[in-house]
Amino acid sequence: MRYLVFISILMVAIFAKDIEPYLKIDVNASAKDLVLVEDNKIAIGCDDSSLKVYDYINKKFTKVIKLPKIKDFMGDIIDTRASSIDYLNGKYLILSDSGVGGYSDLRIFDNELKDIFSEKDKLAIIKAKFIDDTHILLGFLSNEVALYDVKNKKFLYRIQLNESRFSDFALNEDKSLVAFACESGEVTVVQVKDGKIVKKLSGANLDNIFSVDFKKDIVSCGGKDRRASWYNIKSGKSDYILAKFFVYATALSPDSKMIAFTLDEKNNITIINRETKEKKYILKGQKSTLNTIIFKDKDTLFSASDDNIVIMWKLK
To answer: For residue 191, what are the contacts with CB-CB under 8 A and spacing of at least 6?
Structure first.
């Protein structure tokens, strides 16, 4: 009898709970980025020249912001991708392709679209996030971090962190620090107000990092080396688990105790306990390569991939 009890406990420890989608949102385009909006809404950046806002309680779209289409290198008019989006105090920040020379368009929507940068500025921006109503943090392809003053139309700083290509960045909760990841596998923690490098984290990833998240002094990373990793920025200590495939996306729970990773080629999302490395949940239902995972709270997540379905997940 004791052996049966032991086996039952072992089975619980080994096998994660499978989770099916709670809600599927058809955006009729490929979803590239997600950001939470107040009043139970989520904003979705799409590759059909749009940002779409969805009310997941009433299950309906409440806003569609259309971007100008662009010309490709052949001169054809095509849709652009809203590749990085953000929301703050009723305003939306939208980064998209310009169609010219790999340069970016950056706009703010506040009842109307307002241009911040266009192809004329010749900026290869990969990610952009609000810091406050008048400042935007930018990540450049050249692995430069920059803080831009929208009101005065000037860069407060623009600093290259190293020679590697930029991959992703994530801000902490109060937006005082940002974790920058690149193709070298190194993570650079930067002070947002002045661009000062606070710490460099290395060792857990050995190759290109695709995605990072940053909460409660913990930075999680997913990379090409199949390492799903995390760092404590105060102690500098790190750990990781090996995946079966490239780790394209990661997200930390609000308390940073749980981490979501893509660990296999089936586009499943695995949620692990950071302290024990135990696999707690496997979220099954995303059909394409994951672009974004975000936690709303400890039991609710959203994910987007290279297809037209954004999924809302409930762990309990």
So the answer is: 176, 177, 197, 198
Inter-residue contact 125 to 95 (CB < 8 Å): yes
* Confidence band of 281 (pLDDT split at 50, 70, 90): very high
> Tens of pLDDT along 183-227?
999 999 999 999 999 999 999 999 999 999 999 999 999 999 999
Q: What is the rounded distance in angstroms from the CA atom of residue 210 to the CA atom of residue 289?
A: 12
- Taking phi first (over 0 means left), then psi (-120 to 50 degrees means alpha), and beta for anything else, what does residue 226 get? left
Count how many Cα atoms sit within 13 Å of the Cα of residue 167 in the half-sphere of its side chain. Answer: 26
Q: What is the gyration radius of the CA atoms in the chain, in angstroms? A: 20
Please name the residues in contact with 255: beta carbons below 8 A apart, sequence gap of 6 or more.
215, 216, 298
Structure token pair of residue 6:
């032991």
pTM of the model: 0.93
3-state secondary structure (DSSP) of residue 158:
strand
Structure-token match 């975000």, residue found? 294
**Residue 133 token pair:** 């109503």
What are the tens digits of pLDDT across the range 23-76?
999 999 999 999 999 989 999 999 999 999 999 999 999 999 999 999 887 788
CA angle 246, 313, 230 (to 5 degrees): 40
Match 């290509």 to its residue by tokens: 165
Other CB atoms closer than 10 Å to residue 214's CB: what's the count?
22
In DSSP notation, 62-81 reads EEEEEPPPEE-TTS-EE---
Distance separating alpha carbons of residues 95 and 202, to the nearest angstrom: 29
Which parts of the chain fold into alpha helices (H)? 2-14
Pairing of strands 17-19, 70-71: unpaired
